[in-house]
Description:
Layout: H1 3-24, H2 36-54, H3 58-71, H4 76-88, H5 92-108, H6 112-125, H7 127-147
Amino acid sequence: MSMRSTLLIAAGFILAMIVALIYFGNGSEHGMLVSSEDAEASSSSITEARKAFWERDLLKAERLYRIITKSDNADMDAWGELGNLYYMQARWKDAARAYAEVALRLIDKKEMQRAQFFHRLVSQMDQEQSARINEHLRNLNSKQESNS
C-alpha cells in the first residue's frame, strides 16, 4: 500500500470518528441506554468493537458491530459506527444501509435535523436506501394526518 493510500485511509478514519462523536456523543444523552445493566453490556460490546476498529482489525470490528445491531436493533451508535467502517472501506451500499438505519431511528425519535444529515449522506450513496427513508417519512406523515 502506498503512503498516499495510507494517508487517505487514515484521513477517512479520522473523519468517520469525528462524525460519530459529533452526531452520537456517548449515546447516553440521547436516551439510548435503558438500564445500568443494559449500559454495561452495550458499553463493553461497543468498546470491543471500537477497540478493534482503532486497531484496524476491520473484520473483527465489523463482526462485533453486526452482533450489536442484531441484538439491539435500536443502537444508533453501533449502526453509525458500522456505517463509518463501511464508508472507510468504500463499501458505499453497505454504508448507506447502515446510515439509513440511523436516519430511520432518528426520524422515529423526531430528531429531524440529525436525520436530515444522514438522509443527505445516504442519498449520495444509494438511491434505494434514500427511497426507503422517504417512504418511512411518507408513512409517518400519513399517520399524523389521519390522527388529526
